[in-house]
């Protein structure tokens, strides 16, 4: 919480520490004539008469009214402190202020009540134009990212962002506009315009996408939803002269217009090193009904369960799966299929090197599943406990999965039988490093099993970096 001043109040140390209030910030020598008023404020109900915001420039006051309105409902001094602290957090969450300080004082003036309080938020707005430079870790690739932002573009927490990214396998630039709903920051709309050029050496393929998208995010009960439309002009080409004929056949231009919906429930206490909770994410994508020459229905899901065991160890189980169903008698595109294998999914295998392939180029599949069982433990002898050492975990794993194409003229039993054939699996151990709360690095010793003809394996030490791991 920001600095809290109560000029005419004694501190309340029994609650101050829990609320992040430093008793030294509260003046503990009230004037004698205020003693009666002080007694009323500390032990009886109070009324918040005024809430003021100082330091506003381009920010619209009506936006902030939604974030601070709960302060008026506080019934006693401690409740005022709690609600003022929550309001401060909401204001900072908007991403339009560098600093927010909170001051609480007794009401003054002709309309002041004996138990009246005034709350003042002193804010410092972010500059109109900000720049950033950082590195980003994707699924086994790294990027340098340069960005320019115009925060609070129209005065109601909007954000206009230009971003350029140069990576080991992908180069992109794009322009996005973010608009939250006033009073409900988690409900927001994002518009994007972008160009992405990527290289996929496992398929001897390069792809350039130029597209537009609109994305609506909103919570509903315990679930979070994302509705998205995307229109993209895709240009596929061969990465090398040695590309297989199957990849050369895929070369050329296509237009995809797709609607998608994602629903998720996430009760984990951490996205990278969860020790409890579960995640369920289900995604549906329908292409072709809003235009374009790609036509398919795509369904995939992700499930993760975590449970803390003895000695700060954690048992984690994960399951992924998906199906791509071409519509209108079309053949699926190599850019729309699923891929499996590598340090972020079925460890011990090369990056996306499981499943259908032609002349050494991996073509992806229309159906897949992958499962993992993991045991995470602290480092032996707990070096750096409570500090740097807590960023590391030892890791024991068992992974399995399969990727294939289905004959949709057959029934579900035949499909399940096909997915149960030729299962690849692996086991091993290693060390995991957490990078903030968004990514992680893994260094594992892997033993691949169930290897099929054409699979590329990594028998021994394998390094992985990414934001999503099986």
From TrEMBL:
Domain of life: Eukaryota
Alphabetical keyword list: Membrane, Mitochondrion, Mitochondrion outer membrane, Transmembrane, Transmembrane beta strand
GO BP annotations, alphabetical order: mitochondrial respiratory chain complex assembly; protein insertion into mitochondrial outer membrane
POTRA domain segment(s): 46-126
Membrane topology: Multi-pass membrane protein
PROSITE patterns on file: POTRA
Family per record: Belongs to the SAM50/omp85 family.
Organism: Seriola lalandi dorsalis
Chief site of localization: mitochondrion
Name this protein carries in UniProt: Sorting and assembly machinery component 50 homolog, like
Compartment(s) of residence: Mitochondrion outer membrane
Region (Disordered) location: 1-34
Gene Ontology CC terms: mitochondrial outer membrane
